[in-house]
């Protein structure tokens, strides 16, 4: 009996090693064959005369072999006579299918068995006949596949004459083999004696010792209980490995390193072995640290005649289960390889082994080999051996079981030589980042890899339901190549090409392994995975692939994420917080607006353009630009369409797509505009919060598309673009990045006109190199002498200080449209007289209807720039009409220089866009002149109307407006010992208390609640939150003062009273402030809030975000977004992780849920488009989920979506209606819980935080005591009076 393939085979492996390292390729058919009779050249590595001599001898020998053995190693029997009439695959899934394919090729009939959980599996429907295994309801599905009696009976009934057990389950069971024999059925596997000897690891160990094969020191037999195991471990010392006496596949194995772990790990190993193999016996071996795992494939015919089919390297393992295997182990020395082959054949020949088996060894660091076990069955990894030898092992098993000898099957040792290298990867439904925890669920998409040198063994399909009952392997890919490097490259391609979506897989982990430099050497140990934990961090990996979408795991599943969003939208519609009116949705998702087309004359002009106004700013700097603006003939315009206009009319819901589509036209039509207001303010957080877009991405894309017009942003002073104060270094860093990303002009304001806050913003914008507009937040009426608080002197003094701070321009920010033509003339005229060289810029809202008149008056009084919006986006709470200003100033000294005709295509475009965004319209049909009393800012007017409807307060909108005024602008005086409330402090006013006109001394008037403050974000938010709170709780001013200690004020109100956004003109309202702060134990902020804040630690936050999202997925801009809005940014990232970059979706699809039959085209990137059709939405299942089926480029994709309307019906909440019960003050979402059951709390302690739109409210305990019940979790949606916490 020859143990190995002689000098020819050894020389081939020697050269194969050199070829794998040096890249020699010699391909004949599919495999490496440098020894073919037709080979005329060899690699330089084989250039010595000795090697040439050996090669010549080998070639001659192969010529002789080819002459006498021209046929493949395994062939069918003569003619078409099958070895068996019917062959049963007593297994499931991939291996059962593999057996059936081999049987079919041999012309045998196939029979399958399955349990109910496998009803849709290919091994059921792929068999000629299949039969369901019965089991008790309480029994596991696996138990049915271990039911010998039932399987034998099915086989007999189906006239089966051979059973192939596959691997796992009963494949190593002597009892099963015996039962087959007793029933007159051939067992396709080893004999009963072979199984008795080798399926029992302790007996196999003894056989190895008897055959002179070295073994790892260990117990002589199985140990039956924990006491025996402890006694033996104490005898041989640690570390040891516990192994199931029966079975394999890593089941029932545990490494023990401490005595404390011996008993629990023994119990775990024994229990797992019992469940997997029906036998809980365990034996003990000394643990060999960091070995290589090499196994030899053998096959015998039961006469003592055994051949080996070379070796496999199975060292890449986790939990003792193989993950990646290769054949041959090309880095082994010839001496060690020959020794292993000899050991394997020596052991199995002595046992007269029949059929296929694997002899497994550990090779330690000193290259010493130790026998560990014989697996008396086919192995999962048999495919790599088949690929390099060309031998069908399963067919060989069947033919030998039928009585053929090795020679009859064509298995002659001298002819069995490996050609090339094969690698197998097992794709499992496991999550590597959770230590390979199994994942279950529906496979939404399943697409195989294929192509040259690729083999697939698997049973997956789109829609497959992965259950927790069976092994997690879904498919195994085997590739072959003429060298190791070629095989690795091919496997990388395979893993990129396959698509398995809907469940977690280990594909990313496999790609990490293939890319690891240690793996590329072809020599790793079984500790490789444990020593490289970064291999498991798949979401943070980056791979060096030409296709960038395949290189970044964040982009890898982008299409599926987008489809998940569309599926959820189709089932559940938009979430209420988005604010889209479902009744205004379009019937079709194909709604789109074409970009305006530049006339030929404008294209010519554009070609000759000198770069617009921005060129002056870039070349001459802020000071030069200020001079150019002052010298400019005519009135300059800032177009607000891209920011404040849609903020005011559409709740800031405008997506970037619509801005980009008209960017080229806008760049030309408004090339001589002062600037485009397009960023900052509410657009920053709303982009992330509701549109799920990156605000920085918007800025940079628009900057690239509009190179000629300066971009302006709204900077809230020390509040940057937030609603609170930030550390100074954060504000500076933000402005620096904004300038780099494309902002030219910073309009810096403070909601309270607080100079210290303004100064920080101005200094930060100047340091960034921006053009700075020092801005006054306008309130009151300078033309009304009775409104003495905010008179002309107030604004002139403020302007002086803004100029002294370094402002390049002065801006008037009239948030509510209070600036009448008369007031505009007075204020602008006075400013122009005092600051003749400083540009003046006026901003207003048209809520009161006088916007165009006021802007013309301002221009005539000396303003250089006024704000306007394209006609279709103007009026009401937006800015005045751009077209109206252009038309009314034509042919005058104030001519804007903008061509009215050129604006028309742009206006038509925006008319269509606004129609598409109809679901976000507030429902306002006209302006509102009462804004002169309520002073509600234009943008907030729309937002509050929006929020009111969200909170179910739409019918109370007039009351909310009155409460807004009451919260901040109303005044009170005592008349006849009664409190009377007026809109403004003047001698004659309509009393809001008795609805009559009174006359009283002005000295008796006092501001109530928050005080008469400017109202612009974030101060306007404070006022708006309080107004809606008052309406929802049915409170008036007196009640607010009386109950200040116990009311659950919105957080914004409490923070304002603390001083978190600065000091208001005239100071804080008392005694309200003291009552609110004292009841909460809150300390007031002294001075500028940001002055006492430590610097923001950018490096610490960078590390935090990189650890969470991966170093390549965190930019400086991301850190800034997180610093300004930590929760909003986190939610934005979480949303993207679930639903992808929805900014890529066409707006028609983003806004309007798809209906069955709808088909759309989605552009994922340049040259990358997909067609998506909604094929069907299935009826709801028992758990409330619906399966949504899309066709992506004609390929079915299944998405499971929870139908919230069904689940919600089952989730009715209790209402708070008794003592100690704390209810929700209004509808909203719970965003924080401060207590748990058993906590002792005092009255007034915060028990939870809830959010309604942007308003967060801390909910106080209504009484002291112990928390008895907590009925909500973070993220829960609640309605007003829903019971949150019960206290006793």
UniProtKB/TrEMBL annotation:
<dbReference type="InterPro" id="IPR011053">
    <property type="entry name" value="Single_hybrid_motif"/>
</dbReference>
<dbReference type="InterPro" id="IPR003379">
    <property type="entry name" value="Carboxylase_cons_dom"/>
</dbReference>
<dbReference type="Pfam" id="PF02436">
    <property type="entry name" value="PYC_OADA"/>
</dbReference>
<dbReference type="Pfam" id="PF00682">
    <property type="entry name" value="HMGL-like"/>
</dbReference>
<dbReference type="InterPro" id="IPR011764">
    <property type="entry name" value="Biotin_carboxylation_dom"/>
</dbReference>
<feature type="compositionally biased region" description="Low complexity">
    <location>
        <begin position="65"/>
        <end position="83"/>
    </location>
</feature>
<feature type="region of interest" description="Disordered">
    <location>
        <begin position="62"/>
        <end position="84"/>
    </location>
</feature>
<dbReference type="GO" id="GO:0005737">
    <property type="term" value="C:cytoplasm"/>
</dbReference>
<feature type="domain" description="ATP-grasp">
    <location>
        <begin position="205"/>
        <end position="402"/>
    </location>
</feature>
<dbReference type="InterPro" id="IPR001882">
    <property type="entry name" value="Biotin_BS"/>
</dbReference>
<dbReference type="GO" id="GO:0046872">
    <property type="term" value="F:metal ion binding"/>
</dbReference>
<keyword id="KW-0511">Multifunctional enzyme</keyword>
<keyword id="KW-0670">Pyruvate</keyword>
<feature type="domain" description="Pyruvate carboxyltransferase">
    <location>
        <begin position="635"/>
        <end position="904"/>
    </location>
</feature>
<dbReference type="InterPro" id="IPR005930">
    <property type="entry name" value="Pyruv_COase"/>
</dbReference>
<dbReference type="GO" id="GO:0005524">
    <property type="term" value="F:ATP binding"/>
</dbReference>
<dbReference type="InterPro" id="IPR016185">
    <property type="entry name" value="PreATP-grasp_dom_sf"/>
</dbReference>
<dbReference type="InterPro" id="IPR005481">
    <property type="entry name" value="BC-like_N"/>
</dbReference>
<dbReference type="Pfam" id="PF00289">
    <property type="entry name" value="Biotin_carb_N"/>
</dbReference>
<keyword id="KW-0732">Signal</keyword>
<dbReference type="InterPro" id="IPR055268">
    <property type="entry name" value="PCB-like"/>
</dbReference>
<keyword id="KW-0436">Ligase</keyword>
<dbReference type="InterPro" id="IPR011054">
    <property type="entry name" value="Rudment_hybrid_motif"/>
</dbReference>
<dbReference type="GO" id="GO:0006094">
    <property type="term" value="P:gluconeogenesis"/>
</dbReference>
<dbReference type="Pfam" id="PF00364">
    <property type="entry name" value="Biotin_lipoyl"/>
</dbReference>
<keyword id="KW-0547">Nucleotide-binding</keyword>
<dbReference type="InterPro" id="IPR011761">
    <property type="entry name" value="ATP-grasp"/>
</dbReference>
<feature type="domain" description="Lipoyl-binding">
    <location>
        <begin position="1213"/>
        <end position="1288"/>
    </location>
</feature>
<keyword id="KW-0092">Biotin</keyword>
<keyword id="KW-0479">Metal-binding</keyword>
<dbReference type="InterPro" id="IPR000089">
    <property type="entry name" value="Biotin_lipoyl"/>
</dbReference>
<dbReference type="Pfam" id="PF02785">
    <property type="entry name" value="Biotin_carb_C"/>
</dbReference>
<dbReference type="GO" id="GO:0004736">
    <property type="term" value="F:pyruvate carboxylase activity"/>
</dbReference>
<feature type="domain" description="Biotin carboxylation">
    <location>
        <begin position="83"/>
        <end position="534"/>
    </location>
</feature>
<keyword id="KW-0312">Gluconeogenesis</keyword>
<dbReference type="InterPro" id="IPR013785">
    <property type="entry name" value="Aldolase_TIM"/>
</dbReference>
<keyword id="KW-0067">ATP-binding</keyword>
<feature type="signal peptide">
    <location>
        <begin position="1"/>
        <end position="18"/>
    </location>
</feature>
<dbReference type="InterPro" id="IPR000891">
    <property type="entry name" value="PYR_CT"/>
</dbReference>
<dbReference type="InterPro" id="IPR005479">
    <property type="entry name" value="CPAse_ATP-bd"/>
</dbReference>
<dbReference type="Pfam" id="PF02786">
    <property type="entry name" value="CPSase_L_D2"/>
</dbReference>
<dbReference type="InterPro" id="IPR005482">
    <property type="entry name" value="Biotin_COase_C"/>
</dbReference>
């Amino acid at each position: 009996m020859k143990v190995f393939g002689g000098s020819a085979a050894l020389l081939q492996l020697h050269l194969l090693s050199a070829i794998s390292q040096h890249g020699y390729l010699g391909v004949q058919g599919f495999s490496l064959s440098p020894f073919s009779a037709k080979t005329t050249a060899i690699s330089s590595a084989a250039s010595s005369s000795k090697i040439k001599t050996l090669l010549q001898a080998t070639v001659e020998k192969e010529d002789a072999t080819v002459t006498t053995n021209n046929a493949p190693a395994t062939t069918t029997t003569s003619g078409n006579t099958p070895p068996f009439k019917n062959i049963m695959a007593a297994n499931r899934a991939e291996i059962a299918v593999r057996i059936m394919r081999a049987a079919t090729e041999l012309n045998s009939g196939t029979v399958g068995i399955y349990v109910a959980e496998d009803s849709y599996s290919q091994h059921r429907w792929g068999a000629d006949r299949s039969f369901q295994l019965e089991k008790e309801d309480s029994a596991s599905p696996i138990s049915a596949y271990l039911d010998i009696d039932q399987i034998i009976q099915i086989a007999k009934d189906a006239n089966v004459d051979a059973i192939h057990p596959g691997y796992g389950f009963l494949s190593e069971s002597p009892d099963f083999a015996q039962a087959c024999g007793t029933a007159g059925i051939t067992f396709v596997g080893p004999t009963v004696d072979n199984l008795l000897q080798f399926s029992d690891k302790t007996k196999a160990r003894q056989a190895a010792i008897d055959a002179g094969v070295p073994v790892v020191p260990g117990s002589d037999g199985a140990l039956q209980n924990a006491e025996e195991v402890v006694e033996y471990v104490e005898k041989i010392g640690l570390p040891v490995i516990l192994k199931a006496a029966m079975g394999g596949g890593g089941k029932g194995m545990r490494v023990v390193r401490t005595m404390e772990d011996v008993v629990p790990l023994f119990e775990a190993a024994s229990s797992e072995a019992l469940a997997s193999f029906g036998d809980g016996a365990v034996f003990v071996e000394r643990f060999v640290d960091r070995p290589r795992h090499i196994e030899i494939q053998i096959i015998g015919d039961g006469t003592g005649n055994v051949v080996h089919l070379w070796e496999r390297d199975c060292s890449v393992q986790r939990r003792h289960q193989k993950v990646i295997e290769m054949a041959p182990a090309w880095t082994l020395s010839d001496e060690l390889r020959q020794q292993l082959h000899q050991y394997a054949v020596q052991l199995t020949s002595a046992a007269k082994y029949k059929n296929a088996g694997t002899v497994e060894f550990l090779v330690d660091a000193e290259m010493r080999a130790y026998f560990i076990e014989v697996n008396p069955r086919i192995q999962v990894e048999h495919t790599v051996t088949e690929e390099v030898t060309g031998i069908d092992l399963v067919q060989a098993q069947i033919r030998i079981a039928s009585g053929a000898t090795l020679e009859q099957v064509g298995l002659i040792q001298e002819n069995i030589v490996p050609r090339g290298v094969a690698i197998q990867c097992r794709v499992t439904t496991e999550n590597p980042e959770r230590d390979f925890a199994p994942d279950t669920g529906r496979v939404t998409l399943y697409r195989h890899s294929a192509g040259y040198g690729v083999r697939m063994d698997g049973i997956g399909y789109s829609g497959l339901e992965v259950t927790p009952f069976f092994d997690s392997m879904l498919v195994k890919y085997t590739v072959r190549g003429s060298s190791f490097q070629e095989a690795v490259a091919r496997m990388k391609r395979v893993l990129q090409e396959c698509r398995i979506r809907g469940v977690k897989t280990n594909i990313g982990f496999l790609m990490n392994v293939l890319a690891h430099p240690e793996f590329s050497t072809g020599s790793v140990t079984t500790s490789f995975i444990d020593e490289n934990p970064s291999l498991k961090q798949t979401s943070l990996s980056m791979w060096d692939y030409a296709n960038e979408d395949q290189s970044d795991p964040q982009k890898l599943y982008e299409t599926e994420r987008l489809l998940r969003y569309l599926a959820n939208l189709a089932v559940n519609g938009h979430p209420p917080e988005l604010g889209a009116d479902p009744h205004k949705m379009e019937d079709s998702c194909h709604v789109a607006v074409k970009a305006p087309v530049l006339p030929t004359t404008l294209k010519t002009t554009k070609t000759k353009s000198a770069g617009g106004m921005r060129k002056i700013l870039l070349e001459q700097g802020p000071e030069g630009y200020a001079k150019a603006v002052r010298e400019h003939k005519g009135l300059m315009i800032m177009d607000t369409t891209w920011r404040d206009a849609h903020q005011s009319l559409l709740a800031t819901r405008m997506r970037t797509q619509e801005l980009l589509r008209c960017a080229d036209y806008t760049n030309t039509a408004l090339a001589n505009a002062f600037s485009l207001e397009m960023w900052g303010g509410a657009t920053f957080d709303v982009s992330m919060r509701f549109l799920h877009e990156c605000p920085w991405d918007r800025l940079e894309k628009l900057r690239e598309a509009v190179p000629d017009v300066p971009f302006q942003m709204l900077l809230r002073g020390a509040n940057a673009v937030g609603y609170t104060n930030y550390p100074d270094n954060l504000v500076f860093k933000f402005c620096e990045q904004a300038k780099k990303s494309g902002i030219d002009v910073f309009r810096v304001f403070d909601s309270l006109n607080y100079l210290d806050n303004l100064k920080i913003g101005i200094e930060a914008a100047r340091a960034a190199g921006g053009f700075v507009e020092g801005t006054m937040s306008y309130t009151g009426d300078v033309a009304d002498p009775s409104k003495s608080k905010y008179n002309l002197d107030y604004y002139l003094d403020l302007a002086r200080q803004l100029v002294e701070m370094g402002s390049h321009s002065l801006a008037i920010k009239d948030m509510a449209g209070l600036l009448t033509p008369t007031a505009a003339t007075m204020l602008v005229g006075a400013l122009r007289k005092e600051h003749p060289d400083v540009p003046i810029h006026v901003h207003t809202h048209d809520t009161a209807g006088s916007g165009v008149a006021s802007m013309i008056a301002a221009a005539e009084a000396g303003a250089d720039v006024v704000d306007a919006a394209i006609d279709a986006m103007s009026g009401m709470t937006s800015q005045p009409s751009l077209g109206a200003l252009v038309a009314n100033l034509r042919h005058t000294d104030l001519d804007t220089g903008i061509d009215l005709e050129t604006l028309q295509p742009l206006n038509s475009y925006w008319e269509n866009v606004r129609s598409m965004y109809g679901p976000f319209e507030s429902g306002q049909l006209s302006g509102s002149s009462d804004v002169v009393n309520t002073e509600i800012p234009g943008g907030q007017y729309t937002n509050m109307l929006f929020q009111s409807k969200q909170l179910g307060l739409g019918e109370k909108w007039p009351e909310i407006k009155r409460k807004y005024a009451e919260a901040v602008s109303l005044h009170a005086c005592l008349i006849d010992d009664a409190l009377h409330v007026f809109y403004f402090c003047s001698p004659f006013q309509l009393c809001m208390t008795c609805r009559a006109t009174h006359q009283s001394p002005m000295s008796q008037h006092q501001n109530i609640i928050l005080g008469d403050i400017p109202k612009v974000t974030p101060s306007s938010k404070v006022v708006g939150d309080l107004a809606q709170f008052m309406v929802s709780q049915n409170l008036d001013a007196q009640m607010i003062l009386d109950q200040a200690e116990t009311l659950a004020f919105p957080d914004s109100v409490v923070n304002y009273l603390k001083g978190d956004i600065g000091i208001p003109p005239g100071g804080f309202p008392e005694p309200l402030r003291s009552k609110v702060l004292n009841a909460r134990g809150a300390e007031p902020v002294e001075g500028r809030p940001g002055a006492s804040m430590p610097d923001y630690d950018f490096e610490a936050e960078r590390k935090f975000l990189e650890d969470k999202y991966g170093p390549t997925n965190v930019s400086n801009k991301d850190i800034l977004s997180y610093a300004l809005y930590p929760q909003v940014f986190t939610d934005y990232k979480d949303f993207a992780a679930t639903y992808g970059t929805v900014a890529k979706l066409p707006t028609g699809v983003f806004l309007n849920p798809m209906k069955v039959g709808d088909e759309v085209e989605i552009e994922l990137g340049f040259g990358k488009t997909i067609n998506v059709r909604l094929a069907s939405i299935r009826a709801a299942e028992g758990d409330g989920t619906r399966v949504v089926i899309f066709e992506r480029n004609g390929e079915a994709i299944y998405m499971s979506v929870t139908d919230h309307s069904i689940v919600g019906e089952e989730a009715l909440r209790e209402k708070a209606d008794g003592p100690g019960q704390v209810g929700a003050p209004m509808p909203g979402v719970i965003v924080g819980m401060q207590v748990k059951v058993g906590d002792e709390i005092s009255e007034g302690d915060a028990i939870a935080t809830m959010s309604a739109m942007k308003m967060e409210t801390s909910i106080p305990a209504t009484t002291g005591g112990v928390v008895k019940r907590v009925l909500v979790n973070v993220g829960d949606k609640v309605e007003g009076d829903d019971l949150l916490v019960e206290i006793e």
